[in-house]
């Protein structure tokens, strides 16, 4: 029973990290119908930035709390800046191109960023300090849940609530929804579409950075390649929930997290990634619209 | 005349990139030894580099927009030098003769090492041409192409290890297995639209690699299979030197064969259907073309070629393991097709030669190889999506 | 006169929206029939249903190609429908823009020819002959539709009127018994429309093809059609000869709204 509970909590933790990344995919897809392949790399850059700032700030003698806050902030700012720049360089000039072009450009961007970090930093795994302190009240339940897991769960839920609020109730959110519905129409009624797209990339990247910091400090090591697998898994989550749908991405991420947790817990951990890829292939083949996605009629 | 405004713009861009690359490029930390290295020189390089590049970037964007406007008003673009050379017989024949002489003499003039590199380049030409059927002609973005390459390589390695089968008997088996895997994987996924297809093929590619890595009883896991036989000639085994020359000519033969096949295909009933499918699926279907079958044919045919080259790869290196079949390999083949020109045979050949030989010969480049591949994919899509050599549609003769 | 297309009780729902509502319609051999109606009346949806792009929610679609048995074609894929002899054009031109004019028409021959991959690679005598026949056949259609001078141009570089004609030529290459034209005169100037009128009549008279077209240009509809169907809100509200329709109060109301001032 306890093992079962542990697996559930582990799955939810995993899932909420995937959700943070999946939101970026789903928001971008909702707005410009592009699978932003480079999104996983943005997450990886977030983790690296956090690591670099943590080390520097610690050496400069900042206290623990300041280090956590400043490093996370730096990660969020830098990831957003990267997301913004990637969109301006690789996608904006391709707004009117055929569907294949931005996709190839995105793959190119992903490979570029991976190797940029590889060359500028290192190909080795770097140990990532555990930023989250051990809470006293959690001690009795340690065998079921750890404090990083609690922090992850709380942070992600807060982020989701804020995001929902932003999209539902603010002007920017309204502009985003309008652009997702019909870009030309939104432009006609005075929405600055390029700005909305930039904002979408920035928000998505910021969430990914948050995910990057949390998971890196939980797992304890990072390298330039972590974005690739995390990206695919988050994408799986987004598709699972119905790409373009924000609650769908969260739901899909939690389902994927739990599936992985149980599959590795009860079956075998050798094939951890195979489960995710297999799930992805199965959904796309049998229910490409996802759990919460709607089937749209083809316009001819 | 460069205006002050332009300079200001570029200056801001350069400031932005200095900020952007600051943590990754300037700082390097060693968390184990608690050591931080500051590389301020890099910031200078980024600053100056992005300042200059932003001019080039804007100039090229402007040029591209002007080109688009010309195309819209119906002015046909100029024909390129290479296209003109190809069309005129008096250039064409000496060119082909020259190339043939170079190709034949190559292994006898250059060292074994050079020959081996050239053989690799030839293999990528064939892989590029194979993927070109799928991506360039039929417009299906296949990101798991390397899976079929792995199928070919492992079928030779395993059949050779367990049953001692030779290269020549496995070559067709590898091709057929590639084809079968192409059909098996293609059948369920080809109903999906473009970008989903890309992801699913990527997923399949990774699944196959992960299985090869983990299923030790079958594939010997990450340690791979060694001592695979080199190709023989009616039972004669060659020395290392001769074998590499032999492989080289084998690849030359395969390249020529592939060129002929792809050329014939793209000007055939099936090839036209592929291109029509790429242009407009709905219209294509409304014209009586079976979408799924046509896609499947392209997919499986591309896979056949990958299977074949896979066998040759195993025979050339005599050692294979799953690490040779990562997503990056698929990406590399894709960037060959993208750089050269989707749908263009000559383009793919030039693309493969540039991307494989350049990093080999310019040693300084080889570290930056993947960085370069990524950048090329972005730059080509932004500025020249048709590739170096745009695909030329043939004109037909007819009886009135 | 044989009925070649029979649509019975056809309905199509999109979610909660009923785009077609119990529609009945038929086309007889050798006629030119037109469907008219306000925008959003469901005309193109009707085309999409009978050509297999949508699978209708209710109803039956039956075809009787000349000399063949009557067949139900509900739920057939678009390519099967075309193979059975109904070919269409698109309202928002959908040519293969990076292929030449001739190649566009050659695509139409795909379903009437058979050489496969092996044939293409070996390029045997029968493949060469088939290929030559396809080229000649296609070129002849281009001559008939009056765009043979553009044969080696890219489709995307054609002027608008020629693109519309190419759409018709491409559909004709599939040798249909019924040609479905979706707003063939849209965007054409009066001269081009007159030429289109001639072309459609010629296709019917010389190529034994019946025609069902959606069109907004009333002059063209009145001069060309033998019969007219009027649609509004997914329903057929009237049918009859041009003179019947022009005097039908229901039709006038549908077009002009409640107040009849015109």
Topology at a glance:
The complex is a heterotrimer of chains A (300), B (400) and C (262).
Chain A: H1 2-32, H2 39-59, H3 64-91, H4 100-120, E1 126-127, H5 147-169, H6 171-181, H7 183-188, H8 193-219, E2 221-222, H9 226-241, H10 246-267, H11 272-286
Antiparallel strand pairs in A: 1-2
Helix pairs in contact in A: 1-5, 1-8, 1-9, 1-10, 2-3, 2-4, 2-8, 2-9, 3-8, 5-6, 5-8, 6-8, 9-10, 9-11, 10-11
Chain B: H1 4-26, E1 27-30, E2 35-38, H2 40-72, H3 81-87, H4 89-109, H5 112-137, H6 145-163, H7 167-189, H8 194-214, H9 216-219, H10 240-266, H11 269-279, H12 281-286, H13 291-317, H14 327-340, H15 345-361, H16 363-366, H17 369-383
Antiparallel strand pairs in B: 1-2
Helix pairs in contact in B: 1-2, 4-10, 5-10, 5-13, 5-14, 5-15, 6-7, 6-8, 6-13, 7-13, 11-13, 14-15, 14-17
Chain C: E1 3-14, E2 17-28, E3 32-36, H1 43-50, E4 58-63, E5 71-72, H2 78-84, E6 86-88, H3 101-108, H4 117-122, H5 125-144, H6 160-172, E7 178-182, H7 190-207, E8 210-214, H8 218-224, E9 227-232, E10 235-240, H9 242-246, H10 249-256
Parallel strand pairs in C: 3-8, 3-9, 6-7, 7-8
Antiparallel strand pairs in C: 1-2, 1-4, 4-5, 9-10
